[in-house]
Amino acid sequence: MAYMSQEGYDKLIAELKYLESVERPKASAAIAEARDKGDLSENSEYDAAKEAQGHLEAKINQLKLAISEAKIVDTSRLSTDAVQILSKVEMTNLANKAKMAYTIVSESEANLREGKISITTPIAQGLLNHKEGDEVEIKIPRGTIKLRIDKITVG
Known about the structure:
By secondary structure, this protein is α/β, with parallel strands linked by helices. The chain has helices at about 5-35, 45-70, 120-125, and strands at about 1-5, 70, 85-95, 100-105, 115-120, 135-140, 145-155.
């Protein structure tokens, strides 16, 4: 089960609809076009189109699974007492005084450019259940970082 916001769930639904209604017909058309070019045994266009269709179907199935396992969290009922899923955490790296902010989201909603990190990442795991003012040491691939939690808000 993956906990996510309504916004994240809606994005998954929209992506699934797009893939099924736009990309799937395109893939079928590409296969049909390649098939019309003759001998399939040496038709690399046909092989490429079939492979692309396979990747598309795998992506569609992955999205359907994520949607079926999704548990939408009512953000109005979330607490800001401690870090949890859908918490936005403002913190300071105590080594270099750099300020940063991340929202902790489900794996399928993670997007670093939007400041959304997966709950499965070492940083998110290290922050979970900690409170404002806490200083936490988190092991990351490059070593250990020390962060101070400055503020916890929702979403």
